[in-house]
Specification:
The protein is α+β, with helices and mostly antiparallel strands and about 230 residues long. The chain is about 25% helix and about 30% strand. The chain contains seven helices and 13 strands. About 30% of the residues are buried.
Length: about 230
């Protein structure tokens, strides 16, 4: 079992973030539980890469002196699996908002889907979703979006090293993506729909890897907390 000194000197915790939790909530929960278990007044805890509330999977959380390594972990490649739904778009590019436009899908074939994939492999320009935490003029983009304010968003260059449609189930496309820091899978879903002359949005997302860290080796917050020493 890890000791108080282990956490203060620095640990790298692999956590499987539950659906609807924010990354901030996960960090706060673990910080409180570690402080409570070891009677620590103050300890640094941070994560190496945000996951949206509607995504699950790997959060790399660092404690103590290991928080200095967060930038290194953030820069490593990431792997995701999930599902796109064809034929409809949402303002947030996922299920945070409801479908606001629908598009024809009768022309979409398995061959068209597979032949469209290569244009999204390599270095590509991508517009982040307006419902994102990126800052512009001191405000988060989602603050503009929720207030109904128009805002100009600049594209970013990202790199996708692997993009595979692993299963096609009518309008549901199951995928695996390996990509660089800063890639928005929601934007990939939206852009992929456009490239098919239709629309698409992200309906599920799971981060399975960051660098050499794998979600298969991660604990749920509940399991992590259960392994901490209990206080009477």
């Amino acid at each position: 079992m890890k000791t108080k000194e282990d956490y203060l000197n620095g640990e790298v915790l692999l956590i499987d973030k539950p659906l609807t939790w924010t990354s901030f909530q996960a960090v706060n929960k673990l910080r409180w539980e570690i402080r409570h278990a070891f009677d620590i007044k103050k300890i640094k805890v941070g994560h190496a890469g945000t996951l949206d509330p509607l995504a699950t999977g790997l959060l790399v959380i660092c404690t103590g002196k290991m928080t200095k390594q967060i930038n290194i972990f953030q820069g490593q490649v990431k792997e995701y699996t999930g599902t796109f739904v064809l034929g409809g778009t949402t303002p947030s590019f996922d299920l945070e908002t409801e479908v606001n436009e629908t598009f024809p899908t009768d022309h979409i074939t398995d061959d068209l889907i597979q032949n469209t994939i290569p244009q999204f492999i390599g270095q590509i320009n991508q517009f982040p979703p307006v419902f994102s935490a990126i800052k512009k003029d001191g405000k988060r983009l989602y603050e503009f979006a929720r207030a109904g304010e128009e805002v100009e968003i600049k594209s970013r260059q990202v790199e996708i090293t692997e993009f595979e449609i692993t299963e096609i189930n009518q309008l549901e496309l199951h995928f695996k993506v390996v990509c660089s820091k800063g890639t928005y899978i929601r934007s990939l879903a939206n852009d992929f729909g456009k490239a098919l002359n239709s629309g698409a949005h992200l309906s599920s997302l799971r981060r399975t890897r960051i660098g050499d860290f794998k979600v298969d080796d991660a604990l749920t917050p509940e399991d992590f907390i259960a392994n901490l020493p209990s206080k009477a």
